[in-house]
Amino acid sequence: LFFIYCCIERISWRLQKTKALLDHTNTLSLNLTELTDQQKEFQEVARKFAREEIVPAAPSYDKSGEYPFPLIKRAWELGLMNGHIPEDCGGMGLGIFDACLITEELAFGCTGVQTAIEANSLGQMPVIIAGNDAQKKKYLGRMTEEPLMCAYCVTEPGAGSDVAGIKTRAVKKGDEYVVNGQKMWITNGGKANWYFLLARTDPDPKCSASKAFTGFIVEADTPGVQPGRKELNMGQRCSDTRGITFEDVRIPKENVLIGEGAGFKIAMGAFDKTRPPVAAGATGLAQRALEEATKYALERKTFGKFIAEHQAVSFLLAEMAMKVELARMAYQRAAWEVDQGRRNTYYASIAKAYAGDIANQCATDAVQIFGGNGFNSEYPVEKLMRDAKIYQIYEGTAQIQRLIISREHLGKFKQ
Amino acid sequence: MSARVLVGVKRVIDYAVKIRVKPDRTGVVTDGVKHSMNPFCEIAVEEAVKLKEKKLVKEVVAVSCGPQQVQETIRTALAMGADRGIHVEVSGKDYETLGPLQVSKILAALAKKEQADLIILGKQAIDDDCNQTGQMTAALLDWPQGTFASEVNIEADKLKVVREIDGGLETIKINLPAVVTADLRLNTPRYATLPNIMKAKKKKIANVKPADLGVDVSSRLEVLKVDEPPQRQAGVKVETVHDLVGKLKEAGRI
Q1: Which stretches of A131-255 are DSSP H helices?
Q2: Which value, to the nearest 10 degrees, does the dihedral of the CA atoms of residues A325, A330, A335, A340 take?
Q3: What is the crossing angle of helices A55-64 and A381-388, to 10°?
Q4: What Å distances lie between residue A72 and A92, A112, B16, CA to CA?
Q5: B166 three-state secondary structure
Q6: What is the tens place of the pLDDT at every residue in A60-115?
Q7: pLDDT at position A29, please?
Q8: Which of A116, A162, A209, A297 has its CA 20 to 30 A from that of A376?
């Protein structure tokens, strides 16, 4: 009798799990296997541009560190940039999903170029989500009229992950705010036409983060804005990264986003829309690593056969393929969720964390498959390893992502 | 200028794909294989759009013959700047046997129906390499032709065409209406930009059947078999010129 009782227990538990699973999959109507015709065409243009124009130029930009403005201009002409800008500002009002498809293709070509382009989206996102009509028309409109760059100016030398710890001060004086402070690691810092700036407007240390900061749009030629030297980084070397000093910079009150104290929420809100494309970029790099490694493995011979025919190598390739496919599905899910109008923080963090990690793993494995050649700068994979590292750092470190995911997960569980 | 240009575009297996012969040797594998616009047709579309930008022609109409999928190819032409499209529906067995003669009859009928002043085609398709459609279309219409064009200019109401021929370059002047076939160096086709891809969705594609144009698409040709090119045989290395001559004599080559 006891035995029968146990069986019934187990069966009913299993039925419950199955029902929960079915409920979950019934809510999923995202078709990951078939893109729309328009998405396929967009992807085609991005792929062609990346493979024919970015790939050949990337090694020399990596060596020289020169800003790839000709490539950025081309991408702008083809409509591959600024996809998020709403149609009434001259943009295409693309969803995050479509933008991610394009980003993955460009990143395949070179993540340095793609980051320079992506920094535009990051800088624009606070204006897109929180700007009033006048601000949107002025600052987004000009991006579609000429190939201009913008930047997201939040990180400081003393505060990266701890955004609430930033010290740049904005003091209201009449109809203006006077800003003093130091920002660091600002992508497009030296090339931007304007910045989204986060500064502390409430000096009271007891004031909560959700009220103490304000978001501003700052014209780069405002007196007192001093970009520092171009930083020499490990990878994505053609991307322009700088420190920026703000010395008595005066910002008109019309350039405040929403209002005083709203900045923190705006700055964080932008990430839900920009983390999926960053994950897509990391996936593009991983895809490049996989393709380069596969091509090489089918050409190089050792012990009488192509190295791809040795299981040690083919298993490496299989695991790389698994990671790439899953990273892609993760960013597509995160992008789709936010396009449906739902809060996607959980999925966006998972996608960014996972894609950043596997990009590094795949790049390392690609170098391994190339063997001695992989370590050498004449072959394309060592650059991938150097470029991949930053994906575990910027746009929320791997550790911060895990913090977010655990908080979201435990939050769901407690409900 | 009120000229209307008809541009033929063919959907072919993408140039980068490795072609495989079907096991039954009746043709090549097309299922699930990447297809795109024939590269010479891209050059033809680009030339037509350039003429429109120079205000030398008023309307560019893209035409393709085939099943539902050729609409993708027409859309690409629209995204490059063509104004509207015509999809001539040919499917199934008829599509498998569709060749230059039937297509040129269709194009000739359309040229009359649409009152086209100029037809621009690619010089040949990269799948069958026929290099016949342009020439046949001109003959059926009794129009002059400028084939293998590497440069096209409209001067007064005549067409100046620079042709790539074996001996070099030949420049001819022909009356309009005319047929031009595009060669490789005529231009570099533009990318379809993302905004143009979105605009192209609003452009119209008309559907037409060959019977509506009075064209019989049945083929007079029968494909007997399709084979891969013979496998390359290993060569033989020789030490001296003397040995080389000896081996060539053995093989009956000299």
Answers
A1: 133-135, 141-145, 209-212
A2: 120
A3: 60
A4: 18, 11, 27
A5: coil
A6: 999 999 999 999 999 999 999 988 999 999 999 999 999 999 999 999 999 999 99
A7: 55
A8: A116
Residue at token pair 């007196």? A223
Residue B252 region, left (φ>0) first, then alpha (ψ -120 to 50), else beta? left
CA B198 to chain centre: 25
Residue A155 known to bind ligand: yes
Cα–Cα distance, A262 to A259 (Å, whole number): 6
pLDDT at A19 over 80: no
- According to DSSP, the β-strands at B84-89 and B59-66 are parallel
The span from the CA of A221 to the CA of A249, in Å, is: 10
End-to-end C-alpha distance for chain B, whole angstroms: 62
Span B173-194, average pLDDT: 95
B67-104 confidence digits (pLDDT tens): 999 999 999 999 999 999 999 999 999 999 999 999 99
Reported ipTM: 0.77
Q: A35 at the B interface (CB within 8 A)? A: no
Percent share of chain A, pLDDT over 70: 92
> What is the C-alpha to C-alpha distance for residues B47 and B6, in angstroms, rounded to an integer?
11
Query: Quick check: helix, strand or coil at residue A375?
Result: helix
- 8 A C-beta contact, residue A259 and residue A335: no
Distances (CA, A) of A371 to A92, A289, A350, A382: 44, 14, 32, 11
Q: How confident is the model at residue B235 (pLDDT cuts 50, 70, 90)?
A: confident
Chain A CB contacts of B79 below 8 Å: 41
For residue A346, which of A282, A403, A266 has the smallest C-alpha distance?
A403
Distance CA A122, CA A101 (A): 16
Residues of A that are catalytic: 395
